[in-house]
Every structure is written in structure tokens, then in C-alpha cells.
Write the C-alpha cells for this entry.
Amino acid sequence: MPVDHRRQGGLVVFVVLCLAACATTPPPPEERPLLAEFANAYPAKSVRPDATREFELVAAPATLPLLDGRALRVWAYDGQVPGPTLRVRVGERVRVAFTNALPVETTIHWHGVRVPNVMDGAAGVTQPPVPSGGRFVYEFVPKDAGTFWFHPHIRSSEQVERGLYGVLVVEDREPPPYSRDVVWVVDDWRLAGDGQIDPSFNTPHDLAHDGRWGNVVTVNGRTAEELVVRPGERVRLRLVNTANGRVFRLDWAGLDARIIAVDGMYARAPVDPTGFELSPGNRLDLDVRIPAAGADRWVVTDRFTRQPFPVATIRAVGEPVATPDFPAPTNARVPAWREAAAIAPTKEYALNARQGGPFGIEWMLGDDGPHAHHTATFLPRGRFAKLRFTNETYRLHPMHVHGMFFKVLARNGTPVDEPFWRDTALVHARETVDVGMVPVDAGRWMLHCHVLEHQEAGMMTTVEVR
Ligand code: C2O
Ligand code: CU
């Protein structure tokens, strides 16, 4: 029988239209105020790029004088740990020609950056791993100005621990006139008796607890990092926690420091940093005003663990300079989403573990199970979604979602209004955390715990935005 191609074509057009229509069914009334508040909270699209910034990045083994000059065998981007800080401006296209000179396969994930899904570096989901000796070109136009970072997204518990991480700073079109812009990459290392990185990764103890916590803490690869400034300066200090499992709660020793951005995104108003828990994956941008006179030395101390310890020092030296006077950058459009409490969760994830798998323990996201790379929760594009994480364990789980930002809506059922977006939120022992988001970037995005040993043992699934 002859086939009527026109009629078939008509059918295809009809099906496509129906799919498009079904995906844009109007939101229910209770969602509308949330969506109205979200409008313009962050850009849906990137601007048309007016320039391209090209970078070469090589991952390779190296021996570096880290940790106070000791020769440390690491894996490094461009022969440095931390890797290079890539600085671009919003509106520029970023092209990174990557070469894998490691003995193992790897990828690069651009943590927090809303990249096209195929550039997300999630091995086995958005791209096959880059083999040893292979190359891959990452290309994207950042939509948001802020502090981001990059790291492998395969065997991360070993690859990140060995030193593979770097910072991506996306500057505003007109950067606020801080007198100095400084990056502090905070990490910890577990060294063995010979002073080298302890090669036993994913130990039963680390897997069963909060991941691999090291015995040496560094800022920018140094145990005694000192930031020397002039009195009166106003510093933009960008902190990134690249540790596998360690959480930091920094005490600013009386410095005038205020949070202006969390996870890259400007806060609604500057926030007091006291008590902020910087968990693996998180970033903080601080607006630090160095006094023109008086105190001239501040020891920044970690107080997350029972035994406080110094992390780095800031010292003011020389003649005072005039303090730049300008309003701290903010994003007044960060929604409060008070009505979100009434909305039922789109999906509930129980955070728990069971025996089994290659490590003897598997971490998982409830019904999705361990390593649920091919299980996706559908999140309609441009609609409000609420995810609930119920921690059924006594361990820490910093939950991270790729490709979008979310707000913490409630902890243990009590509404909270953090005046900022996040891409990673710490879920404490036996705690329930609700987060809300409006995904606008289509694709299959990873959702996982950023304790890298938990991720390695399965605490990873995906959401599908379309
Ligand atoms: Cu920084 Cu999927 O991670
Ligand atoms: Cu976890």
C-alpha cells in the first residue's frame, strides 16, 4: 500500500505540537506567586557573546613544593595546585581545550556554572570520560557572574583529593571597585607517614563516616597562607571549599567581613558570615573592610570541629589607603518564596545507606537507589519544584544539584529565608531540608552528595529538565 507521506508528516507535526503544549500547561494557582517572584531572579539566557576567551588546560601528574615547600606528588591542572584561576567576564564565551595527560580517564565539571548540558562534564551522563591521552573542548557562555570552580566528575574522591581543582571567576560587566580581588581555595590533605598523599582512597572508615578528612588544612596549597594588604583596603575575598568531606565554619576574628555572594550568586543584602557552614562545593564571596588604623592582624580560625585551628592570616602593612566607597553588590530579586511552604514536594529523597556494592557500603537517595545515573526525576522547565531531603543517618550530606540554583525553604519543617541562592546545601544528621527551584536550563543534571566518598559509593542520581 502506498504510504501518504504528507499525512505522516501531519501526524508528526501534531504530536510535536501536543508535546509542546503539554509541557506548557499553565501552572496551578498556588505556584503563580512563586513564579512571579522568580521572574528575573537570574537570567534565563546568556547574553550574545562579544568575545571568546581561550584556555589550554592539561591534567597531569606533577611534583610540587606544596605544604611549606615539601615535594608533594600530586595530580595537577597546568602543573599547579590549586589549578589556574580562569578569569572571564560575563558575556564572554569560554573555550577550554583540555588534554588528559593522567594515567586514568577523567572529565571536567564546571561546578555551579549553568553550562549547556553536553558541557557539564558528568561522566557517563553528559559525556563519555576523556581517556588517558585524550582531548575534549569545553565551550560555554556563562550566564551568571560569580565564583565557580572546576574538578573531575569521575572517581572524584581520588582525583580531587590528588589536587585536580581550579577556580573560574566570572566577573561582572562592570566589576565593583574593590581595591583587591583575592581567591582562597580551602582544602585538606591526608598525608601518610612518608609525607605523601595517603594512597588508600575510599577506606571503609571514610565511606561509613563523613568522607575523607585530612590531617593538613591548606589555603591555596599553603598551611600558613597570609594575605598582606594595606590598611583601609576593601577586599573581595572569594572562598572555595574543595575538600572531599571537611566542612569549615570560619571565625573572622573581629574583621569587618560580610557575605555578598553564596555559591557564586549575589545575596539580596550583605549577610553576617558568623556561623556560615562552608561545606564541600560551597563558595562564599566576602566584602572585607580593612580598618585604616588599629588592629593590623587577624587570624581566621575554623570552629566547625571541636578543636579550633588557624586557617589563614590577614595582615595590614604600610601606609593607609582611601577605602573605596560604593554599595556592596546585591541581587534584590532573590525571592523570599514564603508561599512555598504550602506546596507539596515534587520529590522526596531519603538519604541512607545499605550494605553491598564494591565497597561493602552503598550510599543512596532513597527509592532512586545507589548510582542512579539513569533514573531521572522530571522537572518541568520554568515551573516551581520542591525537593525534600530526609537524612535518615547521622552523617553529613552536602547535597548539590547541577545546572540550577535553589533556595533552602525549610529545615525540619521550620521555614527559613536565606537571602541567597545556593547550589549546595548541607543536610545535618537526621535533618530534613526542603529546597525550592525553578529550573530554566534544559538537560539531564546530576544531583548528588558532595562528600566525594558518598558520591563514589552511589549517592548520586539525576533530574531531567525539559
Ligand atoms: Cu562539584 Cu557534581 O559536583
Ligand atoms: Cu553524603
Summary: The longest strand covers residues 51-65. The longest helix spans residues 5-23. The pocket of CU-O-CU linkage (ligand 1) is lined by residues 109, 111, 151, 153, 281, 400, 402, 446, 448, 450 (CB under 6 Å).
